[in-house]
Specification:
The chain has a single domain, classed as PH-domain like, CATH 2.30.29. The protein is 47% helix and 20% strand. It contains five helices and seven strands. Helix 1 runs antiparallel to helix 2. The N and C termini lie far apart (80 Å).
Amino acid sequence: MTEQVPSQSRRARQLLEAKFDPRLKTYTHFGVILVLILTVVGIVLIPFWLIFGTRYVNRYFNSLFCELTTRALHFKKGVWFQTERTVPLDKIQDLTFKEGPLLRYFGLSQLKIETAGQSMEGAADMSLTGIIDSRKFRETVLDQRDEITDKHSPSAPTTPQKEGDEDELLVLLRDIHKTLKNIEKKTS
């Protein structure tokens, strides 16, 4: 009995796996210390972070995973609270860079993935900090997204509308206009 293998067109193939810059560890460690300094309660926690923080940051860094497949972008992170996200490429609206002074100091950048149907305006669905050669990764994701959306986007209708369709539309619009006028008269 032979084993059947799913066709390549149905399965998503891995195109690119993102590698994360080890400087992300230093950035994360320094960022937590900065936040602890800025809070009154956090100052007390600084010695604990200095003792246990390196172990946590290393585990967090080792948990980072991001890959681009033929259909989606997959991302995993977290030590205690793990996050795993899959974003279909056809839902990606934009990938934007954030390179603030602290990120630039460490030679890092943040890639924000914005998707269709986001819950809050201006919020990113997913942020990836510290990807090595993030500009190239961004271009590869956008190229694959364009390839997917070009294949699945319906083409423009090639046949012109019939005259009868236009007449029906005009009749419908006139009826709507009359109804709106009647409503206006009753409310005045």
